[in-house]
TrEMBL record:
Keywords: Amino-acid biosynthesis, Histidine biosynthesis, Hydrolase, Methionine biosynthesis, Multifunctional enzyme, NADP, One-carbon metabolism, Oxidoreductase, Purine biosynthesis. Its EC number is 1.5.1.5, 3.5.4.9. Homodimer. GO terms for cellular component: cytosol. GO terms for biological process: L-histidine biosynthetic process; methionine biosynthetic process; purine nucleotide biosynthetic process; tetrahydrofolate interconversion. The gene is folD. SUPFAM superfamilies: Aminoacid dehydrogenase-like, N-terminal domain, NAD(P)-binding Rossmann-fold domains. NADP(+) binds at G166, R167, S168, I232. It comes from Qipengyuania vulgaris. GO terms for molecular function: methenyltetrahydrofolate cyclohydrolase activity; methylenetetrahydrofolate dehydrogenase (NADP+) activity. This is Bifunctional protein FolD. The keyword Phosphoprotein does not apply. It catalyses: (6R)-5,10-methylene-5,6,7,8-tetrahydrofolate + NADP(+) = (6R)-5,10-methenyltetrahydrofolate + NADPH; (6R)-5,10-methenyltetrahydrofolate + H2O = (6R)-10-formyltetrahydrofolate + H(+). PANTHER family: C-1-TETRAHYDROFOLATE SYNTHASE, CYTOPLASMIC, C-1-TETRAHYDROFOLATE SYNTHASE, CYTOPLASMIC-RELATED.
């Protein structure tokens, strides 16, 4: 059996298009465009690439993009002052501070300073708490994007066995909560889990978010499982390559022979993250303007 390839890139493109249509309606009703502010501290090349693609996608969806690039030695005081200014700016609906921050800056303190109503990453404790107790807030983009791919493929997830590998605050934990809300039976596995292969083998749904290249092997999977690969790892360059290949946390070539469906890397979950960021920003804009968030957004 060859697994169906879940085309996250195409799904993300259609989500961005839908967001774009709603963004135009928002502009017509509110008399202004929805706005996203992205703050990048330092010159990390990977972060620069991400910030660039967020900017392009934001503009393409008919929203305002405010980019703030600060030097690597920016003080926490200056960064907090910028966030305070963005919190107060009515043209800014969403604020994203690109992570990781340089080591001298306290990420938790910076996230805590973002207004929860502009926290389109869903990283603020207030939004984590809202998700935990089932109140509406902002859900982190990557797990929400994974849920969209899962429900599109599987429909109702009730009673399915889901195993999330990884317990981070930005992917593993919120992913588990979303699956639980969708009535799946959820296991969170991690580096101390005993006999991880046999835990994964019972899963109808596997979400791999550990950050270890090709760790999940074909013989860990139940026949027909749906596999969502959140990992983005760059392998060391092979002979004749300038840069190493990008691979996920799942051994795709092997898993393809066992899984029912699987997301590729690149072209799977990654593009969904940015599309959901735009979606969350537009939801923030509707709420901040006291307008009804449209159905289906
Ligand atoms: N405050 C904050 N929010 C984030 O959401 C956030 C962040 N910080 N820091 C870094 C991570 C990473 N991230 C990705 C977004 C898109 C792709 C993506 O589109 N990847 C493509 C291309 C990959 C490539 O070619 O490099 C793909 O998988 O097909 C990947 C990773 C958002 N992050």
């Amino acid at each position: 059996m060859t697994a169906e390839r879940i085309n996250g890139k195409a799904f993300a493109a259609s989500l961005r298009e839908r967001v774009g249509e709603h963004a135009a309606q928002f502009e017509a009703s509110a008399g202004r465009r929805a706005g996203l502010a992205v703050v990048l501290v330092g010159e990390d090349p990977a972060s620069q690439v991400y910030v660039r693609s967020k900017h392009k996608a934001t503009v393409a969806a008919g929203m305002e993009s405010f980019e703030h690039r600060l030097p690597a030695d920016t003080s926490e005081e200056d960064l907090l002052a910028l966030v305070a200014q963005l919190n107060a700016d009515e043209a800014v609906d969403g604020i994203l501070v690109q992570l990781p921050l340089p080591g001298h800056l306290d990420e938790q303190a910076v996230i805590a300073s973002i207004s929860p109503d502009k926290d389109v990453d869903g990283f603020h404790v207030t939004n984590a708490g809202r998700l935990a107790v089932g109140q509406s807030g902002f859900v982190p983009c990557t797990p929400l994007g994974c849920m969209m791919l899962l429900t599109e493929r599987l429909g109702d997830l009730s009673g399915l066995e889901a195993v999330v590998i990884g317990r981070s605050n930005i992917v593993g934990k919120p992913m588990a909560q979303l699956l639980l809300d969708a009535n799946a039976t959820v296991t969170i596995a991690h580096s101390r889990t005993k006999d991880l292969p046999s835990v994964v083998r019972r899963a109808d749904i596997v979400v791999a978010a550990v950050g270890r290249a090709e760790m999940v092997k074909a013989d860990w999977l139940k026949e027909g499982a749906t596999v969502i690969d959140v990992g983005i790892n760059r392998l060391p360059p092979a002979e004749g390559e300038e840069k190493g290949r990008l691979v996920g946390d799942v051994d795709y070539a092997g898993a393809e022979g066992v899984a029912g469906a699987i997301t590729p890397v690149p072209g799977g979950v990654g593009p969904m993250t940015i599309a959901v960021l735009l979606r969350n920003t537009l939801v923030a804009a509707y709420r901040n303007a006291d307008l009804q968030v449209p159905d289906g957004l």
